[in-house]
Structures
1.
Amino acid sequence: MHVTSSKPLSGNPGVALTDPAWVRWSLVGVSIAVISLFLILPLATVLIEALSKGWQAYASSLTLPDTLAAMRLTLLTAAITVPLTTVFGVSAAWAIARFDFRGKSLLTTLIDLPFSVSPVIAGLIYVLIFGAKGWFGPWLSEHDIKVIFAVPGIVLATLFVTFPFVARELIPLMQEIGHEEEEAALSLGASGWQTFFKVTLPNIKWGLLYGVLLCNARAMGEFGAVSVVSGHIRGLTNTLPLHVEVSYNEYDFVGAFASASVLASLAVLTLIFKTLLEWKQSQDRKA
Amino acid sequence: MSIQLSNITKQFGAFKALDNIHLDIPEGELVALLGPSGCGKTTLLRIIAGLEQADQGQVFLKGDNVTEQPVKNRQIGFVFQHYALFRHMTVFDNIAFGLRVKPRKQRPAETVIKQKVHDLLQLVQLDWLHDRFPDQLSGGQRQRIALARALAVEPSVLLLDEPFGALDASVRKDLRLWLRHLHHELNVTSIFVTHDQEEAMEVASQIVVLNHGKIEQKGTPSEIYDQPHSDFVSRFIGQTNVFKIEDHAHEWLKHTGIIIDEPQGIVAHVRPHNISVEKPSDPAKAPVTLRDWQHLGSLIRLELQRDDQTASPTTIYAEMPNEQFKALALNKGDRVAMRIKHAHWFN
Amino acid sequence: MPGFRPALGFTLLYLALIVLIPLSAMLLKSLQLTADQFWNILTSKRVLASFEISFGAALLAAGIAAVLGFIIAWTLVRYPFPGKKLFDALIDLPFALPTAVAGIVLATLYEPRGWIGQWLGEVFGLKVAYQPLGIVVALIFIGLPFVVRTIEPVLQEFDSAMEEAAASLGANRWQAFSKVIVPNILPAAITGFALAFARGVGEYGSVIFIAGNMPYVSEVVPLLIITKLEQYDYAGATAIGMTMLVLSFVLLLIINSLQWWVRRRSGQL
Ligand SMILES: Nc1ncnc2c1ncn2[C@@H]1O[C@H](COP(=O)(O)OP(=O)(O)OP(=O)(O)O)[C@@H](O)[C@H]1O
Ligand SMILES: [Mg+2]
């Protein structure tokens, strides 16, 4: 049964739906309190703590060689993982949303699997394979290749935790859009790639961007999985989140919060873009 | 229970949805609230129910001023346009809901509730569906369950918002008659909203015609049909031929014997059955031509066209019984004589 | 339509390389342990305590997040109030904020000399940071958006005519809420709860700074796994990791069937 509301949703609700003022105000009060206490206050705290010793200290801790190295590593990790996850997401969505095959629902479930695995386990599994006492550990050290406690391990762990991000956005979106437009393009003589770039991509662009955005936020911010495989070598295998941890544990609070402020700005930017994209997407739907 | 509305006004922002409504509905009537889309029918019904608060005016039920009473104290049964059945409850639980939420002291025992629900299910002839969920019912079935649910609390007033609006034509016809019989049986004062004039004529004992938030006319179906108070009502109820005296020079109408009376306004509304069509004594002088006709069951509808108007011919519709039409033995293109037996005049 | 083979081929290959083979490496590793070894690792006091802490805290936090999240979703959908759009956008912050940042901020706020910790200590004599309670606070933070974002759309779609119908049948506001609204929102609330719970069990970054990480008291399972790894005790780490994975799947399965049962009971299946 598709239920439609019997009156326009805009405007004031009927009197039967109006709760007593004290109920309204106490619930709004609770909400605002929870949001302020749990979400706004932490954001503010990052800034306050980062600037607690002044701008000078803030700026100098951000320009320390180790901090800069951590930023570079974070950017590098994101630069490798985001494109790979995106390509995977698009091809998985193409296969799942455009074709029927046996085991499709199993595949969909498996794609979501990394969501329900603890990030620490995501790190653990790579250690078991590539670590000093792992399956390939001896072979790797013989050939002087480092995966664990090195950049490749960090990238692999990040690939694991960001695995579903793009696919998960695209599959339902492409299923909803349907394949008529693509079939039309093919029937007009377009090649497969032309169809993809000229028809599919324009239709899914906001959803794709949305997935990429979330994937990027996770790739830059991942902590647990990366923590397991990184080895915390200053200047070499610390990503920015790990650098935050190391500084914090060494009681360098300004340094920790300065790096944290960079990550927090990234989060706020992500939220702003996300809101923007959601708005764009709803505009597209309406059109 | 009688319903009285005095001076009801409701505004949504700058838009006046209801404008100074006065209405008296005696006990036991089955009233249709009729009007075009957006004229304020639902809003009025919701104000009577207490689902919406009027900006001004009072609502009286059985003489008691209930304006400030919330819906749950008004003892009304409301049937929603899309039924609003509780999706998470079986048909049985839906109907029992109103009994089960009564304050403990007034709440009947579970055995009594059970009996009552089954009685109601029998009344709406759907006892076999008692353990289904709303999603598993057809539209017409949902409709009747919604009615049974509203009746369970023995309301003194029954309000129905477009009770047949979401149903297809044939189910609709059946349910109309059924509602009428049910009303006979229960004799609860009832108001139902519709924008289908045929439905209103067929079911209601009284019709209230609403337009732009104002009551245009209130009366029995025959009063509304035979004595429309306004140009709007006359057009809205049934089919009407409109003669503007400026266009249809009165001289011509009189000369051809179409109208016998003196004009009492500048616009004449004429029901199709108030036009009689005959074989002319002299075809050359006959004023109109028979273009076409349609069978409407026992009646025939004739399409006539004035001969002196060639630029933009207006079609005049007339109706007569089948046999009479056969007896006239007319063909398409025949010139015929026409007479208006009765007209409503407006200015 | 073209591209089926390459698309599916690449998808499966990538899935195998990044997810399936590594996960089965863990399975293989744990199969190399004898049942006795496995059992000994799991029943050591420290491991048992950490499981109790992780699952207990996640359960409690998901429960609290479910209640708070419901209230927030309700006010966001139903009531107008100033700044609503901003608050709504902020709900996703825990999704976007790196967990390490959340961790150090929460620890700073709730430590005995922190803004909130100080106040809680003075007014209620309550200690949060470096206690199991600290873990719960961090997990509420992490779980909140899961609950809000699953309940919000359902509440938006909810046909308010059902509420009006309840009122017209004589139900008071509380009855309409508990008998009509809650049953219809419940499946979504359970989903939100399950997501928050699953995330909470495995959560590491936001927890370790505020938890204090005292063995037997406030050491969570993910941390214990890392500790074992740092000691090159791969067997121990694997046994614990495997158990955690299986336990959370079993719990999710139970929650899913609970949800299925609720839906079924309410005719939504
Ligand atoms: N909550 C509201 N907020 C703003 N305007 C409203 C609201 N409810 C109704 N209106 C407006 O009031 C007018 C009357 O609405 P109402 O629903 O009573 O019409 P109706 O006669 O029932 O129409 P229909 O036959 O289409 O159901 C409409 O123009 C509608 O747009
Ligand atoms: Mg209406």
2.
Amino acid sequence: MIAIQRKYSIERRDFQSAGQVSSSIKKIMKQVGVNPEVIRRVSVASYETEMNIIIHSNGGTMEFSIGSDYIKIIALDRGPGIDDIDLAMKEGYSTATKDVRELGFGAGMGLPNIKRCADDFDIQSEVGKCTRITIGFNL
Amino acid sequence: MTVKELQQQLDLEILAAEKEIEATVINDVYIGDMLSWVIGNAEAESVWITIQTNVNVVAVAVMVGINCIIIAENAHVDPDTLLKAEEEKIPVLRSELTAYQIAKRIDLGN
Ligand SMILES: Nc1ncnc2c1ncn2[C@@H]1O[C@H](COP(=O)(O)OP(=O)(O)OP(=O)(O)O)[C@@H](O)[C@H]1O
Ligand SMILES: [Mg+2]
């Protein structure tokens, strides 16, 4: 049973939106009374995912769904994809440019943060095409 | 210790969400300028001391549950950041002191 489902589109380099999608997702979770500890984990994972799409991709979408016993986020972007996923998952690895580092991004901790917060995590990428991240949480 | 007590003690400049400072209690302190590092390590209900001032600091605070931001060393703050902090009810305070000097004066009572 899916209680709520939303799909958001995300533009590349849109730093001023500052986590708008994640804020919306957080509001929904609060409204339906999700446990605060889970809200925090989902919020962290969705914010890191959203900012990665803004910073590193050509734009994409995030889908959020919440059922009676799980929460799921599916992020799909329009490339450029990730060549070496094992490397991208390493703490401290980042290809962030100087301008985004000045904003405080580029620690290379985003993907590790997502994985640590999630109960299920899957990342797949086709270079030149897309990156797809699926994140699941048990309620 | 409340944010208001700290504000008075250190004579911090209040930049946003003044109404919230009296009720906001400091349970922990985190210092950092790399956003994902803060996201991964700061506890909820912390005060966050930083020199990072773009609008994304407010988003990070909201996601993590950080309840007050203190800008150290009088760093210039973007107007967008203050608007968003006001909207999200997260106090933003500022000092000419360094992060170390600010943190040193926060008494968590433990
Ligand atoms: N959606 C994406 N499309 C293409 N590359 C990506 C995407 N997400 C992450 N990457 C690559 O993986 C690297 C590591 O990502 P991660 O989120 O861990 O760190 P970061 O975004 O560089 O810095 P931080 O998240 O700490 O601000 C990125 O620097 C980038 O090279
Ligand atoms: Mg990232």
3.
Amino acid sequence: MPELNLTSAPAHLRHGSNIGQPLTRRDGILKVKGQATYAADNHPPGMLFAVMAVSSIARGRVTSLDVTAAKRHPGVVDVMTPDHKPRLAIDPEIKTNPFVFRMEVLQSNEVRYANQPIAVVIAETLEAATEGAVLLAPRYETLPALVGLDAGESFVPPVVGVGNPTENHRGDVEAGLASAEKQIDAIYETPPQYHNAMEPHAIVAAWDGDSLSIDMPTQGLMLSLGRIAELFGIAPDKIHIRSPFLGGGFGSKGLMAGPQVLGVMAAKLIGKPVKLVLRREQMYGPVGHRAPTRQRLRIGTDGEGRLTALDHHARTVSSTFDDFYEPAADASHTLYAAPAIRTSHDAVRVNTGTPLFMRAPGEATGSIALESAIDEMAWACGIDPLALRLKNYAEVEPITGKPFSSKALRACYEQGAARFGWSKRSLQPRQMRDDSGLLVGWGMGTATFPALMFQAEARAAIRRDGSGAMEIGAHDMGQGAWTALAQIAADAVGLDIDRVEFKAGTSDLPDAGIAGGSAHTATAGAAIHSAGAAVVAKLADLATRDERSPLFGAGNAGVIARDGRLIRRDDESRGESYAEILARAGVAEVEARGTGAPNPAAMEEYAMHAHGAVFAEVKVDPELGQIRVTRMVGAFAAGRIVNPHLVKSQLFGGMIWGMSFALHEEAITDRRSGRIMNANLGEYHIPVNADVPPLDVITVEEHDTHVNALGIKGVGEIGITGSAGAVANAVWHATGVRVRRFPIKIEELLT
Amino acid sequence: MKPFDYVRPATVAEAVAAAAQPGASYLAAGTNLLDLMKGGVSRPDRLVDLTHLEGLDAIDRLADGGLRIGALVSNADLAHDAAFAKSYPAVAEALLSGASAQLRNAATVGGNLLQRTRCAYFYDTASRCNKREAGSGCDARGGENRTQAVLGWSANCIATHPSDFCVPLVALDAIVEIEGKNGRREIALDELHRLPGDTPERDSALEPGDLIVAVRLPPAARGFAAHARYLKVRERTSYAFAVVSAAAALRIENGKIYEARLALGGVAAKPWRARAAEDVLRGVAPTADAFQEVAWRALTDAKPSGDNAFKIELARRIVVRALTLAAAGTPARMPALPASPFASTSGAIHA
Ligand SMILES: Cc1cc2nc3c(=O)[nH]c(=O)nc-3n(C[C@H](O)[C@H](O)[C@H](O)COP(=O)(O)OP(=O)(O)OC[C@H]3O[C@@H](n4cnc5c(N)ncnc54)[C@H](O)[C@@H]3O)c2cc1C
Ligand code: SF4
């Protein structure tokens, strides 16, 4: 990979501290000019094209493939099938750790879901490989497909999400409900949804003996590296993965997926570099999705609208061959101060690819149901929905009783409501109109997402020319890691951002952990921060021990790194530049490593979450039922904001996704065949520009000394939560019709 | 992709000759055809590229007061032709409510008329579909069919025609000029698209090799310019096909409707002209009651073909609204959201 030429001094670079500045993306110009190389832009010499043939049945067996016809097609070089493929070093069905999911890599003829890869055609051109895949004309032995939330006997999974208990209790829910003055008992449904990152999953793989070179978008370089190493039986240091840019991931590129393994296998089979890129419709199956849910909420309140009990049960699905359970009910753990809470899950198995992490997994699905139910309760009590939420404001985390490490939700409610003008809302639905007669509705939802930390390491250096370097295998999936992490790096080594060479995005760099769980900036940032501190300490050591230095005798604790200089804390007139220190010491550079990791003691003591409040206005045509969101305001408290500009973009994206959740997104599955009938971006609706109203994001000041050294909480996922419910509640407020099956459709409003 | 011959004829006669053989298909902008080819739904042996033909991209005002639109005029160029939009505002509005700006820049008049259905089972080559493969069955029946037809469907096919453009055109009695093996002929647009009956594999009245060279609007069509609207209900504000749409055009004189035109989109395998319903309005004042009556009349024969009964009620309401909007008068400027129920959204909110 040629050196990335990032914009070193963005237009509005200010000197002084780097964290907190609204820098534009340093990779922006590359992207606008088309010079940012995404995985599929690579064409090593001699490269061949691989195209997957995928199953059109959801359950059964492939009985024949016309390999001869495919091979006869001009340009086709080989066809990889279960009978003709390189051997893997371990059975991919074996789960070697909790982040390993089963994949279909031609190990048998069994078909477990529609769009499962069943063969790979390798050819000199993409066109030839594509036609070769058609010519395979698979025949099947078809079994009845298991489809939908009632596909079979339900069971209680051992865990949901990643290791969360399936059930949680606090207090006596039944007693709480029995004593309640008002009760809500409602069932909400959410559909299957697919990530649909703009950039499809892709890989360019090239073997050289037992060394493997890979271009591939991934949110988890080291997890992918480890998985490839075990599947192909090679040492991790023989593998080099480059992932400088992702065209979106949203969780679907977190773990090594089957199709990318097939690309590596194809390259091995043929002994040449191979490129394999998924077609849009092929992304509806082997690369994860958000499972559908059916959620029942039972809520009780006393005469004043104070919760007496909250019971949240979620039914979801997993695949027939692996386990991932959308932890939807867990959304009720943290927000509302009910003395009795119960959350529980059950599931059925269906013929789909295994559902996986999709932006706010569990939080998004759970939030729309919970926020709808709270809204229903407010109406039942005759109380303004914001007032009801404030009455039930959780001063400690309801499910655990732990104090929050920080929680500025009250300020979010206040600032968001003020900006939106919430106080003018009519309590009754279907009361507000605009002057063209359209129904107007206002709704709100509370946003929340845990502040997580994973493990990461970074390497920092300070060089004799006074510049710095920071290396970490971090991932820029469009969220702006090239910029935000470089800002942290610059402060960590006490230099301007344009004096620090920031390296990320390849597997030979220190492990940055996964870019997921809204934890990347916090985790990688913590590692960068500590690597910077360590390298500055080394430099200080050099200076303070050298009697020729003006800092001699100051001791480590006695110097500050600022603007490329070390300065005595007690006497700022005494200091010297990095370059001077290194020149005198005769060293080319000093380097050090640092790590970022969760702090178990703090986690034991505190509940750690980001929060927010989202307000939405919709207009609905009273006769025709068409809906349009006309305004949204979101106020979020997420600890320290490293780059307000990028954070705003993340929150905008999340809010738009929330709107999409309420009104648009749904994978429409044929209940007979189990095939997804809208596996394309024309018919799988997401909001288009014309659907997106002016959005207003407020970031509320919040200082958190417990989550991590920098006080960073994530912003990647929280924007969806709260927003979906706010839009749904606004639709109710506009129309008086409570729709409990999402996305809300026109026919539901044709009253 | 399946290999195919590509020919680029220089004249209409050469094009017709080149396309007469079985397995040949005309290629205009390809915004529909190439998608179908990539999905394996259409597998032509030969593409006859129309885009280099001379003389098919003009908009001509005819001596008799009519208008002739060449088959290769792009959807965007037509909609943005100021004189055209002034004379046929509902047609311009329909064009601008379709697809996206990029697609409209490419898509042609001929291609828009002959675009294929968006039935998901037609696109999914693993499904049975009588339209794609005659006699194979229809998986849309009993499947996911909430957007399928409520008028004119048969047990063999319940698909709809997706064009917005065609809806006001059929209301305005547009005529299609065709060049075929046996020379030039013309038919009413209303006769171009076929209802499925027992042969849903035949979308249109065209014979192999037939080339649409132009669409003509008769002189009378401009008489509706003052009261013509297109209204399209869809599941997002833009870039979505109609769930149901309607074109309404009125000639109002002295407070009475002199002549009314009404057509529905998204309800049948063809743009659906509601002639019997139009008659209700002859000589009456444009009142809500009259429009209700029209709506009932227009949907008398409608029946659900699946989980889509709501489309019948929605269609009635759209008819009433489209007529109401038309009666109120064509807006002086094209709305920012053409054909949208939110076209006239303003700011002020009150209880
Ligand atoms: C994502 C998406 C969204 C869309 N949304 C809408 C929408 O909301 N409303 C809407 O109305 N349309 C919509 N469209 C459809 C679009 O209008 C059509 O694809 C377009 O009009 C086709 O024109 P074309 O020139 O590209 O035709 P092509 O794709 O080239 O051809 C289409 C068909 O017409 C035949 N053909 C073309 N020209 C002639 C001719 N002169 N004589 C004989 N046969 C001919 C071709 O053989 C082919 O069978 C959408 C399309 C897409 C891809
Ligand atoms: S409705 Fe028509 S187009 Fe759709 S599957 Fe049935 S036959 Fe095919």
4.
Amino acid sequence: MNSFSSYSSLLIVLLSAALFSCSNPGVKTGGVLDMDNPSKVYVAPGEHDEFYAFMSGGFSGQIGVHGLPSGRLLRIIPVFSVDAEKGYGFNEETKPMLNTSFGFVPWDDSHHPELSQTNGETDGRWIFINGNNTPRVARIDLTTFETAEILEIPNSGGNHSSPFTTENTEYIVAGTRFSVPYPQKDVAISSYEENFKGMLTFIKVGDEGEMDIAFQILLPAFDYDLAHSGKGKSHGWTFFTTYNTEQKTTLLEVNASQNDKDFIAAINWKKAEEYISQGKFKEVPANYAHNVYDEKSHTATSTMKKSVKVLTPEDCPGLVYFLPTPKSPHGVDVDPTGEYIVGNGKLSADLTIHSFSKMLTAIENESFEKEIAGIPVIKFEEVVAGVVKDAGLGPLHTEFDAKGNAYTSFFITSEVVKWNVGTWEVLDRASTFYSVGHIMIPGGDSKKPQGKYLVALNKITKDRYLPTGPELCHSAQLYDISGDKMKLLLDFPTQGEPHYAQGISADRIKPNSKKFYPIEENEHPFRTMGEKESRVEREGNNVHVYMTTIRSHFAPDNIEGVKVGDKVYFHVTNLEQDWDVPHGFAMMGANNAELLIMPGQTETLLWEPKFEGVYPFYCSDFCSALHQEMQGYIRVSPKGSSVPLLWRLGEDEFES
Amino acid sequence: MQSDNVGKSMEMKNIIPRILMLMSGLLLVSLFFFPMWNITLYAPQYPGGVAMYIWINKISGDTPATLQNINILNHYVGMKYIVPESIPELKYFPYIIYGMIALAVLFSIINIRPLYLFWGLLMIALAVAGLYDFYLWEYDYGHNLDPKAPIKIPEASFQPPLIGKKHIVNFIATSYPALSGYLAGLSIPVAFAAWWFKGKK
Ligand SMILES: [Cu+2]
């Protein structure tokens, strides 16, 4: 290990010196000398940014929403991880969102946000994101910026090459990063080649966004890393990168880096649809959670699904082809025309670009070098369109502008390289600070890039900001790409570890953003449609508090007759109907979190009183001049006590 | 209008006042389709302003929740809740307007000159009475405060302006006629025009 890493650092130094003598390592800031730069990122107080940027949270499991060009953080959307601040995953309504076949999984690793598209253009309806750890995909509704749906992926060992939409959001995909025994069983890890499989999943997206697994494709046991669907002429195909075609299970940093070429798997999903309608699939038992949040009842439900349709390439000729691609490719990125498929061979100095039309010709002529598990491997020279030579080291990911240029991140050499699609000529390079992973141009993986800015999502921060101890926020950098030369404009910190991001012009989202939930549409089973209906009901040990909030009191705000051992459900309905007037509900000693209830919404906190006494609760969101007075008491009597259940608001007292 | 044809001129003299009188009645019909008065509160934290519309028969806001939001603001200083159901004027004003429309139709059939003048003067009297009534309501809301109000500001008046613009604590309140208010106002000069044409030689 040591010798390997020192070898690679030596290599980096040598290559940096040899190839990139123009980039001066002594210039630390990236040369912010251009006096126009501050005005380019300045968004005056009260003004809005031009773009939304959705950044995955990586190990935070969430999505961070930033404005561009300012870089300002606008919101964090809880997706795969509990978020105590918003009660997400803690209140009774959202707990089912995090249900899986493994039970409640309160955390995930969210990597790749992907906006929905219509005709290959981002349309601002939804954003999808993968959960890498316990394989899941989520859909976020962009009228509310709330997670609306989470679907678990069966037969997957880690959902990395996901969600990557087709051009009309017919499908999003979910390719497994880790191959696993299929079906899961107790086998020796060394039986990898024999027992393990890699599963690619196609998820149908309905008109209302609802997700459903259409089919899965059983592939050899490789690691499926990233994906992108074709567009325009290549619409109907989806491409997945692979690594570990060596099929190793230990010390992969060495053992999975031996082959000169791995593959890009090209999937003809229109063909898959034909095979499905011909019944050429196997209906295989499975167990996976489908969780849906209903905006009217403000409540999520989790349903376990029990089977999935699996296609096997041996039985389905023409469904899958392998395109040899150097070397452990990370991103696979399709240019806006749909003709070029860029393989970012992360252990290579070159970028390999395949041609979609050459691929079709090769398939027609059967120019195959071999077959693996019924999958033809197309001859490299019959599919490759060009190579960007010695562009840098460690290419990870490529995005496109609207002018026929591509931009590739190079992790090892810590830079973004601009090159021409077609001539494969390097046009410009810009340093990043430091070690860039993915990059993002608004619309940069769609048919219509919106250009103008590029964001580099960096893996290492070090000295870019005031130090905050050993752990630092990951840093993003904004570049102006409107001219011939990329210009570094801005550094800004992000939440978690953004892997990939999506950008979209604000006017595709802003007009549809909801301000509150109309109270008359509230269908929560425990809603309270006005203060007069507020009450407390006992059902055995369960006490249901039908509570309302409006500036600036709870109704009721005094409750007696609760006993140790009870389960008290506070169903709090926020009667407000004004933008940005949530109320909080914080209960002393609660073992979960607070509630943060949006206007028109009902949320439920479960509280299990442990000791007798009188305990306060209060509003935790500063709501008005009398917010500090928004408080109440609940009296807890011993088990078996005869204190009657009563509740009070001002002069009004009720007893059940 | 200065026609040489005497016959035609006589005809015009009969028809124009009738049409004008009907128009006055028609202008009042707008009161049932558009708000007649608008009060808007502006403050930095209410970027678009909070707009309340007074109709002949109801009170509305720029959103269904506006009235609730105004009431929430008002309760801090102890102002009464605005509950449209408890404002009797909203119930009987429509009948007065129905009456005025009926009179306009009747007078245009009868086509006697003093009746046109009478209608216009009656309408002025009603408008003055209506505005006075509006002032009394505003005065009551602005001064008749709950003694248990959480926030008491000595000497402060929360009464919105009858017409125009005024600072009320942290708000700027504007009060102006809205579309049907202007149209109903226009019915008065139109009625006088009927009177004038009828008297023209
Ligand atoms: Cu509150």
